[in-house]
């Protein structure tokens, strides 16, 4: 689990040079501010640190490439990738672009869950018929209505339960949190790491609500289809980091003990006009 204040004790990396000085420069897009995954401080000599930065630093070393971090807002990163101004992006968000067939994805470097949270002052007891804010091109396919299905305990029995959700999409994280704080939405959904950070930082202003939703695809590095060799080398680097326990060491630095979620697991199903489709296939067991 994310431990507050840990980021300041971890490795700080300047933008213009890490990894080997051999080979062509790779431009890697990151977010300006998405703790604990990435955070950029300073203007004259920007410094980046966070979980994603540590991951990509090790990858660049293994594939023997010099890498430059390019910080942007999330929606601008997608445009930069499409226009070849960056070679790849690592953002600490479960990516779900509108046309995934146009991109290549690495193996997951982190398996995450989607977590809902709301303002404590909203005094919500469930998510049924609520408007949920989400960053566009993340977590779930673009659709404005979903059913959230999960098990609930009633009279000593577990029963299937369904909440109907309305999704409202935003371009980036600052817009999303502003929408929550100004009551444009009733709750928001983020990857678990980012949700944990903001809940902890809010001094009890934010509170988690509802079940968590497993994200089987996890967090992945994304590039365009003309970078087949690059994504292959990134995948090989991730396998090497898994084998020599580098990945595990980075996990433990940022997240502490790796334990299964104790929260109720839910599943999202898109409503019409789409046909019903389980986002995370699975069956409920009594």
From TrEMBL:
Signal peptide bounds: 1-19
The record, for SMART domains, names: PBPb
Keyword terms, alphabetized: Signal
**Could you tell me which SUPFAM superfamilies the record lists for this protein?**
Periplasmic binding protein-like II (SSF53850)
Q: Which domain of life is it from?
A: Bacteria
Q: In this protein, which residues make up the domain named Solute-binding protein family 3/N-terminal?
A: 25-258
Family the UniProt entry places it in: Belongs to the bacterial solute-binding protein 3 family.
What protein name is recorded for this chain?
Glutamine ABC transporter
The record lists the organism as: Legionella spiritensis
């Amino acid at each position: 689990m994310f431990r507050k204040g840990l980021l300041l004790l971890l490795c700080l990396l300047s933008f213009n040079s890490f990894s080997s000085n051999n080979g062509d420069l790779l431009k890697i897009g990151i977010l300006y501010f998405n703790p604990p995954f990435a955070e950029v401080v300073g203007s004259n000599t920007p410094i980046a640190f966070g979980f994603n930065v540590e991951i990509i630093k090790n990858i660049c070393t293994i594939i023997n490439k010099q890498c430059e971090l390019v910080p942007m807002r999330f929606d601008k990163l997608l445009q930069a990738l499409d226009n070849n101004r960056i070679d790849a992006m690592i953002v600490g968000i479960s990516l779900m672009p509108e046309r995934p067939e146009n991109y290549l994805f690495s193996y997951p470097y982190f398996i995450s869950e989607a977590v809902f949270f709301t303002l404590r002052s909203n005094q919500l007891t469930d998510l049924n018929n609520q408007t949920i804010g989400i960053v566009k091109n993340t977590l779930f396919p673009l659709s404005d209505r979903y059913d959230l299905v999960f098990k609930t305990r009633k009279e000593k029995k577990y029963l299937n339960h369904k909440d109907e959700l309305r999704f409202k999409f935003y371009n980036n994280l600052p817009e999303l949190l502003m929408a929550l704080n100004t009551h444009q939405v009733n709750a928001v959904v983020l990857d678990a790491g980012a949700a944990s950070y903001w809940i902890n930082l809010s001094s009890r202003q934010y509170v988690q609500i509802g079940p968590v939703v497993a994200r089987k695809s996890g967090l992945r590095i994304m590039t365009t289809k003309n970078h087949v060799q690059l994504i292959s080398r990134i995948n090989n680097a991730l396998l090497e980091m898994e084998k020599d326990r580098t990945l595990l060491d980075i996990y433990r630095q940022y997240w502490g003990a790796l334990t299964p979620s104790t929260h109720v697991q839910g599943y999202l199903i898109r409503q019409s006009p789409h046909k019903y489709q389980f986002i995370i296939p699975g069956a409920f067991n009594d």
